[in-house]
Structures are given as structure tokens and as C-alpha cells.
Amino acid sequence: MVTSDTTLAHHAAPPTTADGLLRRAEDLVPVLRAASDDIERARRLPTEVVERMRAAGIFRMGVPAERGGPGLDSVQQTQVVEILARGDASAAWCAMIGMDTPLYAQFLPESVAREELGDPDTVTAGLILPLGRAERVPGGYRVTGRWQFGSGITHADWVVAGCLVHRDGKPEPGPQGAPGNWRIMIARREEFEVLDTWHTTGLAGSGSNDYRAQDLFVPEEHSFSLGAPRVKGPHASPEAILRNMPGVPLGVARAALDHVRERAAGRIDRTTGTPWPQTYRVQMAVAECEMDLGAARHAVYGSLRRQARLLQAGTEMSPDERVDTVLARVNSFRVARSVVTRLYDLMATTAVYRPSPLDRWLRDLTTMRQHVIAQDQILQSAGAFLLGGTPHNPFSLGIVA
Known about the structure:
- The chain is of the alpha+beta class.
- 43% of the residues lie in helices and 15% in strands.
- It is built from 11 helices and 8 strands.
- It has helices at residues 18-42, 47-55, 74-87, 89-98, 101-105, 110-116, 247-264, 280-313, 319-347, 358-368, 376-387; strands spanning 124-137, 140-150, 158-167, 170-171, 182-188, 193-195, 209-219, 223-224.
- The N and C termini lie far apart (47 Å).
């Protein structure tokens, strides 16, 4: 349960630098860890947890300095998410999703970005995939549909909803002859009906409920295409919202490794009477997990830094450079679950009893591993792109018509 004597100051001014925000994230780790049971039981982030994250400046991490934020780049955003995941996976997942507001703002008209999304602590949730239908009407669209995986929707200010545009009842062709016109609608959370569907074993506290709308009017200026940014820059790229995702699995795996190493220090092998620090199988398991996690982590951050240099320079990326971050992202989810599975097996029956957090970490990683961005179709898309074939998920590569 979250209490008032935690290390995070409620009313301190939000940080204005990356270092300041990273320190605030570290302060939140014990807060989130103490609240993990409450978060999981509630199947959403409790209000006090959300407010502590908001007060720490978590949701404003991507807001540029000229708009009152610390202006973290994708590497720094991933670091913040990774730190938070050491405390609680669901909270980190919601932070990763909720901070997308300034990224979406780069595709929306200036008036909407400044006037309606101008609060640097604004939280956004929702699914961008085109599961809804948007019928063109004067001044905008009439939107109907049902979307899944609205992570953080229970505390969001705005909600996005991907749609295929129709005109006079017929599908509208997309830009450059694309078979459909994919546009993303954004409206206040109160304009959608949130459905209590998120009954899961993992990431239970993310509140990733379904939501729906029926004949909702959305003004034209509240819609956008990820293929048509309003501004230029490193974040005005379709896949910018995906870059900090690896922070969640990396942070959970790190927490699990730290936990097992701490427990191993005082444990004795029952069969041989040998202390765990002197036991070969324990030594090997810990070393191999550190090796695998370290390699996956370096791949994530190395690829993000290389991508940032190319984007900053305005250099056209080669196919290999474009898939670099994609492969590292998928691998981070795979490796994290593999690491925690091995640690779970190492700890054996003690892992299944509370208050051991290993069971929750394994369930959280198994659930997040099912996200489309961690699935085989992303690898297929990367391989197809490298070979000149047709990607099944071009968006994951930053390709939007």
C-alpha cells in the first residue's frame, strides 16, 4: 500500500532536465514496488500512484523544453521506463504509453498541440491500429468502433483510436493509392465508453481495457496520419512511439536478477550443503542471465543511439539501419522472458510463494511478450524489408503510406 512517508516528495517542482527526471524515477522504484500488490489487485494504477508519477514528471518526459518539459530523447525515455519497471511492470507500461502525448502532438495541427494538449502532464492512451470506422461528414468524422488494449485508459486525459476512413459509405483510398486511408482520432476519455475487459494474469495493473464509440463526432483537426508529420525532427517519425518499449522488459529482468542475486547470497544447497555463491549451477545460471540481458540491453541502447544520429543528421537510413532498432526491440522481450524463466526455475518452489515477486514478473513478461510489437510478424517484416519482400507490419519499421 502506498503511504505518505515514501521518498518521493509530492509537491516538488517537476524536473526540467534528463538527470533530474532519472533521479525522480529512481525515487519512485521503492514506491512502486510497495504498491505492486495494490496495483495488481486493482487491475489499474491506483489514483495515488498516478499522481505520484505525474508529480515526478514521468508523463512529461518527452515534452520539449520550450513547452515546459525536460525534452528527453528516445534513449533517455527508455532509461526512465527501464528504471520504473524495476519497481512495477504495469506502472512502467502505463508510463511508456502515457507519455506519447508530445509525440502525437507533432502530427496534429499546431492549435490542438498547443491549446488542448498543452499541459505537459497530459496522459494519452489508446490503440492506433485501424479497428474503427470514420465516416467523413462536414467538419470531421463520425466514428464508430471498438478497440482493445487501452493501457492506462482509466487515468488518461485523451484517447486515440485508429480508424479506416469511409466516404458516402465506401472505404476511402489512402495516400499514394494505398488500399485504405488510416487515420488516428483523438478525443477526450469521457467521450469513449471504457469496458471492464482486462482480466489477465500478467500486466494486470495496466488497466488495458477495451473501449468503444458509437457515432462520435471528431473534428478534422483532431485526426492525424502517422505518415504526415506537421514538423521535422527525430520524434516526427511513425515508430517514435515504439522506441522506449524495451525499457519495460529490460527493467523487469534487471529486477529479477537483482532479486535472485540478493537471495543467493545467504542460501545453502540442501543436497550438498554448499552455499549458493559456491555452487556451479547457480554461478552458471546467474552469469548466463547477466550475459544475455547485458547483450540485449546493449543492442537496444546502441541501436537507439545509432538511429538518433541518423535522424538528427537527416540521413536516409539503409534497410539494415532501419531494422536495427526493430530487431533489438523484439529481442529485448524474448531475452527478458527467457532470463526470468531461468531464474524462476533456479529458485524452484520458493518462486511460487508470496511474497516472492518472481511469479508476477514471469506473468508480466509472458503477457507483454504477446504484444504485436514482440511477435514473429515483426521479424518477418524486418526480414522481408532486408530481402526486398513485402513486410506484413510496415508500421513497425516506421513505414506509413
